[in-house]
Amino acid sequence: MAATAGGNKIRNAKLVLLGDVGAGKSSLVLRFVKGQFVEFQESTIGAAFFSQTLAVNDETVKFEIWDTAGQERYHSLAPMYYRGAAAAIVVYDITNAASFTRAKKWVQELQAQGNSNTIVALAGNKADLLDTRQVSADEAKAYAQENGLFFMETSAKTATNVNDVFYEIAKKLLQGQQVQNPQGGMVLNQRPPERMVRGGGEECCRIL
């Protein structure tokens, strides 16, 4: 923990993105960190590192983000990045059923490492491509509930729910709570970015 000039504490949190090649992991990070979208993003080699600071009410989380490569030949490197992570975002492409299958394997791998304190989000990316959808939102929600994940569909291209995924993770880190409900999971429905303003117009979440 470090203190800001205003006296509030900064919580450093390691976050890793996992998922199949082409699912849009790098695009999600680029949209969150820089507010940019590149139509033809080059595949990550090994892993890429980013950092971003997010304010939630009067507290601050500094994400140390590892964007891992989706190619199978880099799979053996993944444990170096997800070990000790406070949170993970497992990303799949809603237009690619195989990427959803691959996402499930990443979830199993995270669960097998035995760190029950890791907050895990399931992100169905490319939600702007509804006409070519292969994975239904209901199927993904059901899987999230069964496995104690929280779920959002995102679009790095349109920015839909991108900031929200990181905001919800930051909020849970600060609350120190695990993602639980009587059904064994927590599902967060799709919301526009404007949701990050609370009543009376007071800003509750901002990227610093």
Q: Please state the CA-atom Rg, rounded to the nearest Å.
A: 16 Å
CATH class: Alpha Beta
User: Average pLDDT, to the nearest integer?
Assistant: 78
Low-pLDDT sequence parts: 1-5, 177-208
Overall shape: globular
Which secondary-structure class do the elements indicate?
Answer: alpha/beta
Total DSSP E strands: 8
Number of helices: 5
The major beta sheet can be summarized as: 8 strands, mixed
Characterise this structure.
The chain is an alpha/beta fold. It has a single domain (10-178), classed as Rossmann fold (3-Layer(aba) Sandwich). Helices cover 26% and strands 26% of the residues. The protein contains 5 helices and 8 strands. Strands 1, 2, 3, 4, 5, 6, 7 and 8 form an 8-stranded mixed β-sheet that branches. A hairpin with a 5-residue loop joins strand 1 and strand 2. The protein is globular, with a radius of gyration of 16 Å. The relative contact order is 0.18. Residues 1-5 and 177-208 have low confidence and may be disordered.
